[in-house]
Design goal:
Length: 347
């Protein structure tokens, strides 16, 4: 397989494909998308830089060959979460393929400058975590930056954003449960502080009602001192399940915004002699094997496409590094993978 075939399918020159693969800039987002689609259809994976013919020039704008993954206002343990772990692994592989190194740093807020930022020891930043700072330190604005999997609610105009398409996820969940034959559905969320989950829930309820379904929302009370990455006490989850099961128009199925919440939901349903999936349909989100294999019966789960999020974050950062004159603030929503409906259940 050669880039000539990729170029032909994408309708561009092989030089354009080469610039895209080697992150040399000069490729529009529309053209880049056609190249990605052609590479996916042809199952084409570029060789690492050191194995390519000829001398691979370092892309313009690179000084150190380093990229920093900066956790802002979040503990280092978030990297152990399956989805984030997958994303970081893809990021590291994509950077290595380009001959770049990835290292980790932490900052309590965007006023806090780790040495890699204050001393300009990195060519760009990939940021994750929580950041409510309306006016970050000037050093952050001077570096190419891309937020990914971010839980903050305020977009930062000095950086780009790559994140799951939460509205599409919610709409997909509603369509899936409707295809299953459910007429009464609900959104269940024990992490109200997470803005991404709130968007999924709002989109789910809106799409469900557009389909003529009866939709309710069961969301725990927010806690002002609980971080987005934290979880509510078990007592709050117990009350939430009690509300769900006691409602006069009890839902036939629920959409839960993450597999980890389903781990907490299952035993609480069991205490009330409710068998998940059989007695109450459950649709989860994240599609993370480490959590799903603990659930019996195993619920269907929407795949957020963490691999694509990692690749797009690297592509966007390299575009920002090699084309510094382009205005920042680009927002890229990565769609979830398709979820095939199972045979409809009878109700």
């Amino acid at each position: 397989m050669s880039i000539v075939k990729v170029a032909k399918m994408a309708g561009v020159t092989h030089g354009t494909v080469s610039r895209f693969i080697n992150s040399r800039g000069g490729v529009s987002e529309e053209t880049a998308q056609r190249i990605r689609q052609a590479m996916a259809k042809l199952n084409y994976q570029p060789k690492p830089p050191e194995q390519r013919r000829g001398k691979t020039a370092r892309p313009a704008g690179l000084r150190t060959g380093n990229v920093c993954l900066l956790l802002v206002g979040a503990p280092r343990e978030v990297l152990d979460r399956p989805g984030i772990n997958t994303t970081v692994a893809i990021i590291e592989a994509e950077l290595r393929r380009r001959g770049l190194s990835l290292f980790l740093a932490q900052a309590g807020s965007l006023k806090d400058l780790p040495p890699c930022v204050s001393r300009r020891k990195t060519d760009g930043l990939l940021l994750a975590g929580e950041a409510s700072d309306s006016a970050p330190a000037a050093a952050y604005r001077s570096l190419p930056a891309v937020w990914l999997l971010s839980s903050h609610t305020r977009p930062h105009e000095w950086a780009d954003h790559v994140l799951p398409d939460n509205e599409r996820i919610g709409a997909m969940a509603a369509g899936y449960l409707a295809a299953q034959g459910h007429q009464r559905v609900a959104f269940y969320n024990d992490q109200p502080e997470h803005p991404g989950f709130a968007v999924r829930g709002a989109a789910f309820c809106a799409a469900a009602r557009q389909r003529g379904l009866e939709c309710q929302s069961f969301v725990a009370e927010p806690s002002g001192d609980r971080p987005v990455w934290g979880f509510g006490p078990n007592a709050a989850c117990v009350k939430l399940v009690e509300r769900l099961l006691a409602t006069a128009s009890r839902p036939q199925a629920v959409f839960v915004p993450t597999d980890e919440q389903v781990l907490r939901l299952y035993p609480l349903l069991a205490r009330r002699s409710v068998v998940p999936v059989r007695d109450l349909g459950v649709l989860s989100c994240d599609n993370q094997e480490v959590w799903l294999r603990q659930l019996d019966p195993r619920p269907p789960s929407i795949d957020l496409n963490f691999e694509a999020i990692g690749r797009r974050a690297v592509e966007q950062l390299m575009s920002r590094i090699t084309q510094p004159d382009q205005p920042p603030g680009t927002r890229i929503l990565v769609p979830p993978k398709p979820l095939e409906p199972e045979p409809a259940a009878s109700h």
